[in-house]
Amino acid sequence: MTDLINLLTLPESSRAFTAYRSSAVDIDAQSTYNPRKTPRLDTDSDSGSASRSRDRLKGKNPDRTGPIKIQVHGFQGGIVGSALTKVYDRSFVLLRYNIRQLLTKGSNELSATYEGIYTACRGVVCIAGRGEMLYETLKAEIDQCVTRLARELETANKEPVEWIGQFVEACVWFETQVALLQLLLTYLDRAYVLKNPSLISTHDLAFRLFRERIFGDLIVHRLRTGILTWVTWERNERLVHIHRPFLEALISHLVTHNIYDILFEHYFVEQTHVYFSTESRRKVEVEEMSAQEFLSHCKERSNEEEGRAKDVMLDGTVALVKDATIRALYEGRLEWMAKEVVGPLMEQQGTAKLKHAYATFSSVDGLPVLCREFKAYVQKTVQDIVKDASKDDEMVDRLLQFKSFTDTVLNEAFVNPSSNQTNQDFVYALIDAFAKGFKARRNKPAELIAKHVDRLMRHGQRGMSDAAFEALLDAALALYRFTDDKDVFRTFYHRALAKRLLLERSASDDFEKAMLKKLKEMYDPEFGMGDHMFNDLALSRDSMREYHARIADDSSAQKLSVMVLQRSVWPFVALKKDVDLPPSMQADLNDYTTFYKIKHQGHKLDWDHSLGSVTLKARFAAGPKDLTVSLYQAIVLLLFNEETDVGYRQILEATRMDDAELKRTLQSLACANKKVLKKRPVGKEVNDDDVFYFNAEFTDSRAKVHINSIQAKETPEENKRTQTHIEGDRKHYLDAAIVRIMKAKKELSYEQLKNETVDAVKSHFVPEVSVIKQRIAVLVEQEYLRRDEDDMNLYVYVA
């Protein structure tokens, strides 16, 4: 029996059962097995070997290489049981000793090899069934180990950052020993712990006990003190600390023990906010740093913190640290920053810096503040441009330049990085700011925008592509949408269009028609009047071709060109008196009038010579020239065919022209750049006593000289008449709107009537409240409305 025990417990030094020869019997499934038959161990002397050889050839040879299962009875009690108990007691003592040695820092003496410890664990857990005892022993040893480590760390006398190095060393040693134990005690985890769901593995047990004991209040405090000391030094010195690797290793161990978030991340983010809040107050309130300097400083600090976090911490912490830095720096500073940064950067056209400011404000949820300041700046700038009467000639160009820049800012600076789309809040703010800025001065912006479009139409593309020229027109119309005075724009545009068409000063009829179509479809249906204007011109050309075909080829009327226009379509009023034409001209007009009335019975022709043009042959000392002049200028010049010197009063009597119109005409001939007349005395103004004479010495490099541009210019009197016409039309609009509203509603309070009137006419203009009130009073006087007898604030429609 003793030999059997030795064979079972000492397989590495004994042949064990390999000393015995075994014989396996192949039992046929169809035969009956005789239990009394004695199996032969010696296969060579077995008489059945021949049959087994045949079976081997048939593939029936049994497998003799597999394990042999032996069951030994009678181990309980007695000599065998006592011996086995002693064996396992020795194995358990060996395991406990070596576990303690492995968990004792500085001890490297083991009583057995790793293989011996591994085998002992197998025997104790799998054979002796002492897994619970070993597990409890392991737990106690780990607890003592972490207690010693905690005491060592708590009593260590080192500088905060250096102490972190000692903590890291302790973590490295403990994690290494636990990993080794986990390998040596594999059978404890696999054969015991896995069968008990309430237990945790060797690794998890060790780490739990480590976390519970090591990360107590004192050690956590010393860790955080070291972390704060390190990061404060780096922030103040703006350099890398010599012991930064300690922090990198610390992060790794905190993650390993699942305590990174609680112990490090939350604390670090909180201290970051505290540090930079203090720095923000110092920079702004003590050092009085300017907003732009502060913005640059914050950018540098934010980049430094982001870089430090990327080098040391987990990826998820980087964004938290950067966010805490930016929020702390800008907390309570957004209003001040926006006011101090937006204006100067807009004036400097610092799009890149505005983009950085947008990103900064976005990161601290400050975009509404930035948007408000942007809107306020744009509105004030537009108001300043619009109200600057001394620079009215430059108003539209300045507005276009500013609008172009603000559009660039929107598309390049105020863009959401996630969608790469312009922030719509800033787009709406820009539109609102321009609209409110235009309200600072009524009528004038709309008038000047119309005149700007007129200049573009007269000058044409001048080498630009169609797309580029159309972009210029669209930019001008983009300003038109901001004005409330749509009727002012329409009136001035209408008059300018009429002049361009009649004087043939338009660069392109195609662009004229395209512009009218766009205005009609996108802004105001009343721009449909342009279609009628082009129709009149076409009919007039057809009429002139027919007239010229009927008269003699040598007739002076062959050079006559007449435009017959509908008064309701064209923006001109009938003149109370007109000039006296030379007899030959008047005869040709009379002849055409007869032709027209025969063709169109019942139509009445009223002649307007103010927009007529004439081409004259003039003979100067330097040679003949063709002079293109207005009809008024031609009438004056023809007087000098008969007289050398003609006085102002004589000209006035001969032409019966309006006094102001005559002075303007003479000024264009004798005082402008192209002086085909001269006057005595010399001067820029025309007086009643001036005498004019023909300038035979006039020279010009071109054979055809144009001096009729005076017609295309608007005189102060004409502008005043246009403004008066606009105000008169507005009264009619308001009267019609009020009557129409009251007819539908029957009775309304003053406030209701006022609001509905504004809504009714706002597509043409936005009336002042005082004007609405005045028109209501007029309509009451005219008995279209009446006040209610019981409520004087209530108006009633009078049928």
Structure notes:
The protein is mostly helical and 799 residues long. The protein contains 30 helices and 11 strands. A 3-stranded mixed beta sheet has the order 3-4-8. Strands 5-7-6 form a 3-stranded antiparallel beta sheet.
Main features:
799 residues, mainly alpha, 5 helical Cullin repeat like, Ribosomal Protein S5, domain 2, 3-stranded mixed β-sheet, 3-stranded antiparallel β-sheet, 30 helices, 61% helix, 6% strand, elongated, disordered N terminus
Strand fraction equals 5-15%
Number of helices: 30
Uncertain segments are: 1-7, 20-60
Oligomer: single chain
CATH superfamily of one domain: Cullin Repeats
Question: Rg, please?
Answer: 53 Å
What CATH calls the topology of one domain is: 5 helical Cullin repeat like
Tell me the distance between the termini.
135 Å
Biggest pleated-sheet summary? 3 strands, mixed
- The main sheet orders its strands as 3-4-8
Helix content: 55-70%
SSE class: mainly alpha
At CATH's second level, what is the architecture of one domain? Up-down Bundle
What's the level 1 CATH class of one domain? Mainly Alpha
Provide mean pLDDT, rounded: 85
* Secondary structure tally: strands: 11
What coarse outline follows from CA principal-axis ratios? elongated
Organism: Rhizopogon vinicolor AM-OR11-026
GO biological process, one term: ubiquitin-dependent protein catabolic process
Family: Belongs to the cullin family.
Protein name: Cullin-domain-containing protein
